[in-house]
Write a structure and sequence with these properties.
- By secondary structure, this protein is mostly helical.
- It has two domains: 17-51; 62-238, Hypothetical protein af1432 (Orthogonal Bundle), CATH 1.10.3210.10.
- It has helices at residues 62-66, 69-91, 95-112, 119-128, 133-136, 143-160, 165-175, 187-207, 212-222, 226-238, and strands at 16-20, 27-31, 36-38, 45-47.
- It has a two-stranded antiparallel ribbon.
- The longest helix has 23 residues, at 69-91.
């Protein structure tokens, strides 16, 4: 079955249009189903500004449909942005929670650049991992309560965004126990866990200098990934803890 958006039978008069090259100003002609084209004058690659790449964020045929590695990177960027917007909208003026989620996502992206994992799953989990705190904190509920509620809310958000069942199930599984790892965890869980742990350490360290032996043991034993441990040490040095001279 062909994607309806690429079937010429459904095209209208605006299916062919021109875009000005941002490098040289030359007019580049696009067909609506072309993800990208090179400028005939200067060779600059242009992404189709009118193409909706949202389906590619989850579609398992994205590589065959779009092919270009630059476009697949754009797909991941799009997913990250959509989930981040939903998270910020949900927390509204709770800038503490928004800031925490954004920092976890940033560290997760740094870790996954050197470790295994699925960027779409990890970043979705990073932005939504504490989404349940809005409902549980006023009543001082336990951590597992916010994990359970967060998993439910994350599923609701991802369903609204049109995510696949596979992605939703894994993201929600990670969120449902992100403070309670099991004996064997996926690479995606490990990346999210380490990123969250780094941010939690940063927040604790800015309030009170932690015991050197305790934090050294935590970094050596509690982190799953090599990159996570490296980033934790770099952060603590940057904060002036002088734990690693």
């Amino acid at each position: 079955m062909r994607c309806p958006g690429q079937d010429t039978r459904y095209w209208k008069s605006d299916a062919i249009f021109e875009v000005k090259c941002p490098q040289c100003g030359h007019q580049v002609e696009f067909f609506k189903d072309e993800p990208a084209r090179k400028c005939n004058k200067c060779g600059h690659k242009l992404i189709n500004p009118k193409m909706d790449f949202w389906c590619a964020a989850y579609c398992k045929f994205a590589k065959q449909c779009f092919g270009d590695p630059d476009l697949l990177a754009y797909r991941d960027e799009l997913l990250k942005n959509r989930v981040a917007v939903e998270m910020k909208h949900y927390f509204q003026k709770d800038f503490k929670r928004i800031g925490h989620a954004v920092k976890v996502a940033r560290y997760a992206e740094k870790i996954i650049n050197q470790e295994k994992g699925d960027l779409a799953i990890v970043l979705s989990a990073a932005y939504l991992h504490d989404i349940g705190l809005k409902d549980t904190e006023p009543d001082n509920k336990k951590a597992k309560d916010h994990e359970k509620k967060g998993s439910m809310k994350a599923r609701e958000i991802l369903l609204k965004l049109g995510a696949t069942k596979v992605l939703i199930d894994e993201v929600c599984d990670i969120i449902s126990r992100h403070h309670h790892p099991g004996n064997e965890e996926s690479e995606n869980f490990k990346v999210l866990y380490d990123a969250d742990l780094i941010v939690n350490l940063e927040e604790q360290q800015t309030k009170k200098i932690l015991d050197k032996e305790k934090i050294t043991s935590l970094i050596n034993n509690d982190f799953y990934t090599k990159r996570g441990r490296e980033l934790a040490r770099e952060l603590l040095e940057l904060l002036g803890s002088n734990l690693y001279s």
